[in-house]
Specification:
It is a single chain. This protein is α/β, with parallel strands linked by helices. It folds into two domains: about 210 residues, Rossmann fold, CATH 3.40.50.720; about 70 residues, Alpha-Beta Complex (UDP-galactose 4-epimerase, domain 1). The protein is about 40% helix and about 15% strand. It is built from ten helices and twelve strands. The strands form four sheets. A six-stranded parallel β-sheet has the order 2-1-3-4-5-10, sandwiched between helices. It has a two-stranded parallel ribbon with strand order 6-9. The protein has a two-stranded parallel sheet with strand order 7-12. The radius of gyration is 19 Å and the shape is globular. The two termini are about 35 Å apart. The protein binds ligand A2R. Ligand A2R binds next to helix 1 and helix 4.
Length: about 325
C-alpha cells in the first residue's frame, strides 16, 4: 500500500482521454478520503465539461476549486494529426495551456502543476544518443513543438512559487488507446481481419524505427510516484521510459504470433513519417533514482491487452 498523495484538492484536465482513464482511479485510490478530485472531460456526456480554450471558464473554475494539484493531460496528442492540423494543435496545446497557466498563477500561486509533455520534444537530439532531461530538445513535428512551447510557457507564466513538474514519457499504450497510435493501429487491423471485416493483410509504416514502449499502467504509477515526492523542489523535469528501445516491427511480430488467422504484412507509404528518427533512446535514470520506479508490465502483456480490447470492440 503506497503512502497517500499529499493533496487536498486535485484538478485534472483531459480526464476523458486515454491516460485519464488510468490516472483517475490511481489518484482516487491514493488521495485521502476527504480530498477532492475534479476531472472535467470535453465530451458532451462528461459529468462536467471544460474547453481549455475558454479562458474565462478556466479562470472561474480554478478560482472556485482552488486546487493544490493540477494534472494537465488535455491535448491534441497525436503527432500524425498535428502534421495536418497544426493550428488546432497549437490552439489546444499552447493557447489552452496558457489559459490554464494564467488561471493558476492568479488564483493558486503555490499549487503544483504536473504537465504531461512528451519525449517527442527531443526530436533530432535522439540522433546523437540517448536523451536525458538535460539534452537540448530539437522537436521535429508540430505536436512536439507545441509540447516544448507548453513546457516553456508554464515555466514563464506560472507564479515563481508554483511547483512545475514536466513529464516527458516515451510511447505508452494500453487498452482504450485510439488507432492514431501505432500499437492500436496494428491491433485494430488484426482484430478486423480475424472478424472477417478486412482481407488478411495488415498495412504498416516503418518497422525498423527503434522506440521505447511502456504500458500506460506503468506510466501512471511513475506520475503518482513523482507527485508523492518532496514538494520543496519547484521546477523538475522527468523522462518516463523503460530505457530500452526495440524495433516497432517487434510489436507487429508479437501481434502476428497472437493472431488467430494467417496474416500478410504490407508497407503503406502513407503511414511513413518524414520526421522519423531511426532510434529514440530515452534515459530515465533520474526517475528511477528519485522514486525507485521501474516498469512492471512486460510488453507482451501490453500488446495482448491492446489486441483483446480491439477484439472486444469489433465483437471478435
Ligand atoms: O478531443 P477530446 O474531446 O477527446 O478531448 C481530449 C482532451 N482535449 C481537451 N480538453 C479540454 N479542452 C480542449 N481544448 C481539449 N482538447 C483536447 O484532452 C482528450 O480527452 C484529452 C487528451 O486525451 P488523449 O488524446 O487520449 O491523450 P492521452 O493519450 O490521454 O495523453 C495524455 C497527455 C497528452 O497531453 C499527451 O500529449 C501527453 O499525455 O503525452
Amino acid at each position: 500500500m503506497p503512502d497517500m498523495l499529499p493533496y487536498r484538492s486535485v484538478f485534472v484536465t483531459g480526464a476523458g482521454g486515454f491516460v485519464g482513464r488510468y490516472l483517475l482511479p490511481a489518484l482516487r485510490e491514493q488521495l485521502t478520503p476527504d480530498a477532492r478530485l475534479v476531472a472535467p472531460g470535453r465530451a458532451a456526456d462528461a459529468d462536467m465539461q471544460l474547453d481549455l480554450n475558454d479562458a474565462a471558464v478556466v479562470a472561474r473554475l480554478i478560482d472556485d476549486l482552488r486546487p493544490d494539484l493540477i494534472v494537465h493531460l488535455a491535448a491534441q496528442s497525436s503527432v500524425g494529426a498535428s502534421a495536418g492540423g497544426a493550428a488546432e494543435t497549437w490552439r489546444t496545446n499552447v493557447a489552452g495551456t496558457l489559459n490554464l497557466a494564467q488561471a493558476v498563477a492568479a488564483s493558486v500561486p503555490t499549487a503544483t502543476v504536473a504537465f504531461a509533455s512528451s519525449s517527442e520534444v527531443y526530436g533530432a537530439a535522439f540522433n546523437v544518443g540517448p536523451a536525458g532531461e538535460g539534452t537540448l530538445p530539437l522537436p521535429m513535428s508540430p505536436y512536439a513543438r507545441t509540447k516544448r512551447a507548453g513546457e516553456e510557457l508554464l515555466a514563464d507564466v506560472l507564479a515563481p512559487t508554483n511547483r512545475l513538474i514536466v513529464f516527458r514519457p516515451g510511447n505508452h499504450s494500453g487498452a482504450g488507446q485510439d488507432t492514431r497510435f501505432v500499437l492500436p493501429a496494428f491491433a485494430d487491423q488484426i482484430a478486423k481481419i480475424e472478424g472477417g471485416q478486412l482481407p488478411p493483410v495488415v498495412k504498416v509504416g516503418s518497422l525498423t524505427a527503434m522506440r521505447d514502449f511502456l504500458d500506460v499502467r506503468d506510466v501512471v504509477v511513475a506520475y503518482c510516484e513523482v507527485l508523492r515526492q518532496d514538494a520543496s523542489r519547484l521546477r523538475e523535469t522527468f523522462n518516463v521510459s523503460s530505457g530500452d528501445v526495440l524495433p516497432i516491427g517487434n510489436l507487429l511480430d508479437m501481434l502476428l504470433a497472437m493472431a488467430r488467422v494467417p496474416i500478410r504484412v504490407e508497407q503503406d507509404s502513407a503511414r511513413l513519417r518524414a520526421s522519423d528518427v531511426p532510434s529514440a533512446r530515452i534515459d530515465a535514470t533520474k526517475l528511477r533514482e528519485w522514486t525507485g520506479w521501474h516498469p512492471r508490465y512486460a510488453l507482451v502483456d501490453t500488446v495482448g491487452a491492446v489486441l483483446d480490447d480491439c477484439r472486444r470492440h469489433h465483437g471478435v
